Amino acid sequence: MNRNSKTIYFLLGALTSITVIIIAGFILYSNSEDIVAASDEKNDDNFPQNYRIISPEVPKEIYFAGERVPLENFEVYERVDREILVNTYWHSATILAMKRANRWFPVIEPILKRYNIPDDFKYLAVAESNLDNVVSPAGATGYWQFMKAAAEKYGLEVTSEVDERYHVEKSTEAACKYLLESYQNYGNWTMSAASYNMGVAGVNNQIGRQKADNYYNLVLNSETSRYIARIVSLKLIMQNPQKYGFDLNGSDLYPQLKTYEMELPGSVVDFADWAAVREINYKVLKMYNPWLRDNKLTNRNSKIYTIQLPEKGSIEVIN
C-alpha cells in the first residue's frame, strides 16, 4: 500500500472514530436527561425521599423481666445492638409479629399473670415462633416450641390425633410451668429464659464447666447467647414501633378471634361431617383448633375436650 492510500485510510478511520464519539455522546446526553426527569418524578409525593438506613439507638437502660441488662459490658451491648438492627430491618417478620400480637397477646398475657410469670415472657414466644404454629427442624412445635418429651412432662397431650403443643392456651400454661420450675432452680428470670432455649441440662453443664452462674458471664452457643438480646429487642420495637420506623395502623393488625366453646366428651368418626352439622367446614374447624391432628377422634378414655367454634357471622364460610 502506497503513502497516499495509507493517508486516506487513516483519515477515514479518524472520521469514523469521531462519528462514533459524537453519537455516543448524544445517547449519553439523552439518557442523562431521562435520568434527571425520572429523578424529578421521584421527588413528588408518590416517591418520598426521606427513607434512610440508620443504626437505631440502643437505650441507655434495658430490663428483661425486671432484671437489668448490663449494657456497660461492650460485648453485651453489641449483642443487643445486633438484634435491634436485625429485627428493625427484617421488616416482614417483625411486621407479622406485630400483626399477630394483636390477636394472641390478649390470650397469652392473662395466663402469664395467673402463673406470676413476668409479662416480658410473651416476647419469648415471639422469639421462639414469631407467634406461629411452626415446627423446627429438630421437631420443636407450636408457639412455645416444645419438644415431645418436654410437652408431655408439663401436661400436654401429644398423639397422632391430638397435639396440644398447637393449643395456644394449653401450651402457654405448659411454658409457665417450665419457667416456674426453672426459676426455682436459678433464682432469676434471665437464666430461666436461657434454659428455655438451651435446656436445663445444657445450662447446668456449662455452669459446671465454666464455674459461673450468671447468664452474661457464660460462653454459650450462638443461639442462646443471642436469645435474651433478641427478646429485649423485640420488646423494644413492638412497644414503640414508630421509633424504629414501623408505621402500622390499627386496621393493619389481625383482630382477635370471636369464638364460643363446646365440650366434646366422646369420640368423633369424621370431623368433616361433625363440622358440617355445625354449619362450618373441616378447614374452619382446624383453623380454630389446630391441635386436632386427624379428621377423627378415637378418645378411648372419654376425655372431655373443649372445642373452639367461631361465633355466628364472625367468619365467612365458603360454600
Structure description:
The protein has 319 residues and is mainly α. Helix content is 52%, strand content 5%. The protein has eleven helices and four strands; from the N terminus they run αββααααααααβααβ. The chain has helices at residues 3-42, 74-89, 91-114, 122-129, 148-153, 168-186, 189-198, 200-210, 222-239, 271-277, 282-288; strands spanning 63-64, 67-68, 259-264, 305-310. The strands form two sheets. The chain has a two-stranded antiparallel sheet with strand order 1-2. It has a two-stranded antiparallel ribbon with strand order 3-4. 27% of the residues are buried. The model is unreliable at 2-12 and 20-43 (pLDDT under 50).
Which key features would you list for this structure?
319 residues; mainly alpha; 2 domains; two-stranded antiparallel sheet; 52% helix
Q: Concise description?
A:
The chain is mainly alpha-helical and 319 residues long. 52% of the residues lie in helices and 5% in strands.
Widest β-sheet, arrangement of strands: 1-2
Mean pLDDT over the residues: 89
Instruction: Give the beta-strand count.
Output: 4
**What name does the CATH topology of the largest domain carry?**
Lysozyme
Shape: globular
Helix fraction, binned, reads 40-55%
Q: What is the terminal-to-terminal distance?
A: 89 Å
Number of helices: 11
Q: What is the CATH architecture assignment of the largest domain?
A: Orthogonal Bundle
Q: What's the number of domains?
A: 2
User: How much β-strand is present in the residues?
Assistant: 5-15%
pLDDT < 50 runs, ≥5 residues: 2-12, 20-43
Which value, in Å, is the CA radius of gyration? 30 Å
Largest sheet: 2 strands, antiparallel
Per CATH, the class of the largest domain reads Mainly Alpha
